[in-house]
Amino acid sequence: MDPRPSVTVAAVIERGGKFLLVEEEDDGRMLFNQPAGHLELNESLVEACAREVLEESAWHFRPRELIGIYRWSKPATPSNAGVTYLRFAFCGELGEHEAGRELDAGIARAVWLDAAEIRALRERHRSPLVLRCVEDYLAGRRYPLDALIEHA
Questions:
Q1: By C-alpha distance, which of 106, 138, 135 is closest to 35?
Q2: CA atoms of 26 and 23, how far apart (whole Å)
Q3: Which end of the chain has less Cβ packing within 10 Å, N or C?
Q4: CB of 8 within 8 A of CB of 38?
């Protein structure tokens, strides 16, 4: 396993007591995750989060606060080398939905689930960070975006 982490972003989006998740294919299984993905060259963490939400769910999203920074190592499998992720999870403002927008490859659908439903599906979470981020959001963890210092 490469000890250098892969930087990712994720969005915890709540509307009316339900959270936006995506159902996606990973290693031959259909799993649930927040809209999330990798930081791309020359984009900020906030820009990456907004882009990933749109690409994976067809919802516009504006990150307003950082929920937390999480490190998780995915164990190796016969078909995939292990990897360590460094996840920046955000909450913020939900915008418009682009009905009919094609979702990223591997994303089956976007769904709204309440916290109890998310907990009940924990065996089908892409990582333990899915539930941890929701729980931290519900516990009120928030940090200002200016805590992120990014030099171009």
A1: 106
A2: 10
A3: C
A4: yes
3-state SS, residue 50:
helix
In this structure, which amino acid lies at residue 111? V
Report the half-sphere exposure of 21 (CA within 13 A, side-chain side): 27
Q: Which residues pair with 44 in a beta bridge?
A: none
User: What was the pLDDT predicted at 152?
Assistant: 67
> What confidence score (pLDDT) does residue 27 get?
83
Tell me the two tokens of residue 59: 């919802």
pTM: 0.94
Residue ranges of the chain with per-residue pLDDT less than 70? 1-2, 152
Residue 10, CB-side half-sphere exposure with 13 Å CA sphere: 28
DSSP state of 122: G
Greatest Cα pair distance in the chain: 42
Distance CA 125, CA 106 (A): 15
DSSP string, 6-44: EEEEEE--EETTEEEEEEEEETTEEEEE-SEEEPPTT--
